[in-house]
TrEMBL record:
This is HTH tetR-type domain-containing protein. Keywords: DNA-binding. It holds the Pfam family TetR_N. Residues 13-73 form the HTH tetR-type domain. The keyword Oxidoreductase does not apply. Residues 36-55 bind DNA. It comes from Ktedonospora formicarum. GO terms for molecular function: DNA binding. InterPro entries: DNA-bd_HTH_TetR-type_CS (IPR023772), Homeodomain-like_sf (IPR009057), HTH-type_Tx_Regulator (IPR050624), HTH_TetR (IPR001647).
Length: 200
């Protein structure tokens, strides 16, 4: 989740929105594999050349939908000015459980290709968000010299995998209890790596 990406020009944002809305509508009617660029542009009333000004293919369009929806939903759960601290991490973890549940309901993630690409996009967004917090933290007393990007990737994959198990009913606990359990595991591990690594 890049926090340094410049805002899009309103016309660019509007065109992307038309294409995303058209693609969403088509996904409710048919599989992603059977949707053509021509169908997307026809539904959006935009020409093919304009489509390729914005996206390389329909999978890039899908990727933008998943990432932007994930960013919006997670932002709603985070406190104002979130950062690397226990309060923000707790809000993020709880938000992930709820946001991914909504994302799976919104998108047709039953399709293998769609599911694979969507999961990859969400994990990358999550890792980027955590990495951004780590980079702006005032101090990271890393006694073992572990790199922040590795910490971010580890946390994101651990959390993402846990949410997938929970979503499939393999872990019959509430989102709040799952958040509590995950934070216990993560904070105990981080405390072993570096005492006081995660501020209150």
């Amino acid at each position: 989740m890049s926090q340094t990406t410049p805002p899009l020009d309103p016309r660019v944002r509007r065109t992307r929105q038309f294409l995303q809305n058209a693609f969403r509508e088509l996904l409710r009617e048919k599989s992603i594999e059977s949707i053509s660029i021509q169908e997307i542009t026809g539904r959006a009333m935009i020409n093919r050349a304009t489509f390729y000004d914005h996206f390389t293919d329909k999978y890039a369009l899908m990727d933008s939908i998943v990432r932007e929806q994930f960013q919006r939903e997670i932002a709603a759960y985070l406190p104002p000015n979130p950062g690397w601290n226990r309060h923000s991490l707790q809000a993020l973890v709880r938000g992930i459980f709820l946001a991914l549940q909504e994302l799976h309901q919104e998108c047709n993630l039953g399709e293998v290709r769609f599911a694979t690409l969507s999961k990859q996009a969400v994990q990358q967004e999550l890792a980027a968000l955590i990495h951004g917090w780590l980079k702006t933290a005032k101090r990271l007393p890393m006694s073992q010299g572990v790199r922040p990007e590795l910490i971010a990737s580890t946390i994101s994959w651990a959390l993402f995998g846990l949410v997938e198990e929970w979503r499939h009913g393999e872990l019959p606990l509430s989102a709040d209890e799952m958040t509590h359990q995950f934070l216990l595991v993560m904070t105990e591990g981080l405390a072993h790596l570096a005492p006081n690594f995660l501020p209150e």
